[in-house]
Specification:
about 160 residues; alpha+beta; Alpha-D-Glucose-1,6-Bisphosphate, Chain A, domain 4; disordered C terminus
């Protein structure tokens, strides 16, 4: 399954079913190791040592993205809302971009993820930006699959030991 990302004026909405429960997805979004594992998607690397997280309303998280050509860009966000394993809202202070991450438990033990970005600056109102967000969420899904405990997200394996 891939990510569905839609542009609507100055908003971008992406949806993805993830192969891990909301607690593990929350951890990926709120720990330095989790953020470093997926944030760059297919278009950049995030050096693990560059990620800082101060998980509180008004706290910041920041990271460096390094493009294939070596160019590095520092990104910084401020937490607005923190509802563990349900919703995370953060702003990018330079552009005013607001991102809302919503997690809902799926029937199969996974997570239904929605990322809703509002107040996109004009340079991010493009198909390329939508594809970039989709790539990041696809990388998140791959990270969660690689680190998946034997019983989570695989109810058949839990009930069928063969």
């Amino acid at each position: 399954m891939s990510t569905d990302a839609e542009l609507h004026g100055d908003e971008l909405i992406a949806r993805r079913r993830l192969p891990a429960g909301p607690d593990r997805v929350w951890s990926a979004f709120t720990t330095p190791a989790g953020v470093a594992a997926f944030w760059g998607g297919a278009h950049a690397d995030v050096p693990p040592g560059s990620v800082t997280v101060d998980l509180r309303v008004g706290g910041e998280f920041a990271l460096d993205t390094r493009a294939p050509g070596g160019a590095t860009r520092r990104l910084r966000f401020v937490y607005v809302t923190i509802a563990p394993s349900r919703e995370l809202v953060f702003d990018e202070p330079v552009t005013g971009l607001r991102t809302t991450v919503t997690l809902r438990p799926a029937d199969d033990g996974g997570t239904l993820l929605t990322v809703h970005q509002r107040r996109l600056p004009p340079e991010l109102r493009t198909r390329r930006a939508a594809d970039g967000l989709a790539s990041i969420l696809d990388a998140l899904a791959a990270h969660l699959r690689q680190c998946q405990p034997a019983t989570e997200g695989n109810s058949r394996a839990a009930h069928d030991p063969a």
